[in-house]
Design brief:
The strands form 2 sheets. A 5-stranded antiparallel beta sheet has the order 6-5-4-1-7, with no helix packed on it. Strands 2-3 form a two-stranded antiparallel ribbon. It is of the alpha+beta class. The protein is built from 2 helices and 7 strands, in the order αβββββββα. A hairpin with a 4-residue loop joins β5 and β6.
Amino acid sequence: MEFTHAQVNQVSASTKDEILPVFRLGQRVRITKPIRNDGSNPFHEPNATLVPPGAEGYVVRIGDWLQVIRIYEIHFIEEGDTYGCREAELESVEDIDGYDEVEEELQWLREHRAKKAVEKALKEQSQKEGEPS
């Protein structure tokens, strides 16, 4: 994975990242600084803004650069591109509606497993009652 000068050096190298990643895979984030083309992207003019501040995307991979600087690979939704970003360049985006799909899915799994356990217990009980003593 290569990161352009603009992607890596937007925050000084002296900034220390948190020990554990601040963001998680799949988390929705917003970039706070523009990502500009330092000439390494042949599809855009040099110094063109590739991703404007405020653009939102999702964390698709977490890696490091020089084993010191944590880089989050962010897929930006509207831009349709993926770029490496530092922790200091990102902020979390909370879902506006507060809807938690994961919690809903976990609740369904709990209810489904409980229902299956009851069905299994009833089946075992009916089998025991049907056995001759």
